[in-house]
Every structure is written in structure tokens, then in C-alpha cells.
Amino acid sequence: METTLTVESTEQLAPEALLHAVLRAKAGARPCMTCSFQAEDMIVLHLLRRRIPRVAVLFLETGYHFKETYEFRDRITQEWSLNLVNVFPQKTVAQQESECGTLFRTDPTKCCQLRKVGPLLTALEPYEIWFTGLRREQSPTRQNLKKIEQHRLPSGKTLLKVNPLADWTWTQIWEYCAGNQLSHLPQYDQGYLSIGCQPCTAIPDDVSNPRSGRWGGKKLECGIHTFSERV
Ligand code: SF4
């Protein structure tokens, strides 16, 4: 029985085999998943909840999501009996905007830090495994993504980040969703390819770079996948 995970040994594994290998090698470790309910997240959730029905599903509740995203989150949470953990920033949207104005316009990096990165840092502390729906194809900033990565939080704690769909294409994503009759966020039907907070999400001009529709093309990452040190 293999109990040691290496980047090399996991790189060729399909998502289900990877989940199996990780959960066997890390038996007893506490898992979580970050989830914005995009198509990739729905697939990882679909696979993961068969093995860990009560896996913690961390949703970054920035207060700026589309109305449709909140409705979809609530519907799927109920239908799948998810263990949803809404991760809140310290300040409400109203408090932040009265003190700092609309930071998503003037300083989106600070806004993401306050509403996503900081809260996620705290939310990840109780866990040892962090599942995501990240893919290499999503952005030039994700081209070097591995299926498993060891990350160190600023507190010094390390956790295993697992990206089962790292090598999947956009076509594979939609084939899986169709084949397994998975619901999707309605914004995809309007032409959105990457869906986050409403003020920072647009339909991309460049379909080969789906995240180019985020932050008006000024940046490609909010920081939740770049704040931690890869070790
Ligand atoms: S994505 Fe936009 S609205 Fe959301 S936290 Fe970042 S800057 Fe703020």
C-alpha cells in the first residue's frame, strides 16, 4: 500500500484515483474545499462528497457576489446537504464602503485582501488538506500548477493543496458536467467563463484566457491562490 504522495506519482492520476490516493495516504487529516460554485468546483464537490459527505465547503462570502450565485449556492447546499462554511470578512460591505469607498474600483488588491485573502487564511487553519477546482488552462498564472502542492500559511502551518482537475481542459469540464447532469451557474449561459464577485467579473473578450474578464483585465488573481508559500 502506497502511503507516500509525491508530485511525480500523483501527476498522472485521474481525479478519482488522486482523491483515493490522497485520502488513503492522509487518513485522519482534516479536509476542506474552497468553492465558488463554478463548474470546476461542482465537479470536485461531486467526487469528494461521495467519499466525505460532510467535507467543509468554504465559500468566501465577500458580499459582492451575483444574486444568481447566492441562489445557486443555497440551492446546491440544500440539494446536496453540504457542510457549507460561509467565510466572512471582518467588515460588512456597508462598513467597508463607508470607510474606504468602493475599493474594488480604486484598490482591488486591498479589497481582495480584506474580503478574501485575510478571511481565508484564518478559515484554513483548522485543516490539513485543501481541495480546489484550479486548472492550468484557466490562466497564464496557473500554468505551473501541480496536482498536489505543499503550502505554508503565514502562521507556519503547512497543508496539502490538492488540485484534481489541474490538467483538465474546458471541454472535459463540460463533458463531465453533462455526463453527470450537474447543474451550473446561470451566468455561464450568458457568456461568462470565470465567475467571481459581480463588480469584478465581465464576459471576456479573449475566450482563450477566461480570467481576462476578471478585474477589467488589470489582474488575474485575487490572491487566495498566491498568498501561501509553496514548499
Ligand atoms: S473580487 Fe472585487 S469585489 Fe471581490 S473582493 Fe476582490 S476586489 Fe473586492
Account of the 3D structure:
There is one protein chain. Helices cover 35% and strands 13% of the residues. By secondary structure, the chain is α/β, with parallel strands linked by helices. Helix 3 (39-51) crosses helix 8 (170-179). The longest helix has 17 residues, at 108-124. It is globular. 36% of the residues are buried. The structure holds iron/sulfur cluster (SF4). The site of iron/sulfur cluster has 13 residues, from helix 7.
What does this entry show, briefly?
This protein is α/β, with parallel strands linked by helices and 231 residues long. It has eight helices and seven strands.
Give the SSE layout:
Elements: H1 7-11, H2 15-25, E1 31-34, H3 39-51, E2 56-60, H4 67-79, E3 83-87, H5 93-100, H6 103-106, H7 108-124, E4 129-131, E5 148-152, E6 158-162, H8 170-179, E7 229-230
Parallel strand pairs: 1-2, 1-4, 2-3, 4-6
Antiparallel strand pairs: 5-6, 5-7
Helix pairs in contact: 3-8
The chain binds iron/sulfur cluster.
Give the strand content.
5-15%
How widely separated are the two ends? Answer: 25 Å
Write down the secondary-structure element order. HHEHEHEHHHEEEHE
Give start-end ranges of low-pLDDT stretches. none
Radius of gyration based on Cα positions: 17 Å
Number of helices: 8
**Proportion of helical residues:** 25-40%
- Widest beta sheet: strand line-up: 3-2-1-4-6-5-7
Question: Which hetero compounds are present in the coordinates?
Answer: iron/sulfur cluster
Largest sheet: number of strands, sense, barrel closure: 7 strands, mixed
Alpha-beta classification: alpha/beta
Number of strands: 7
Mean pLDDT: 92
Shape: globular
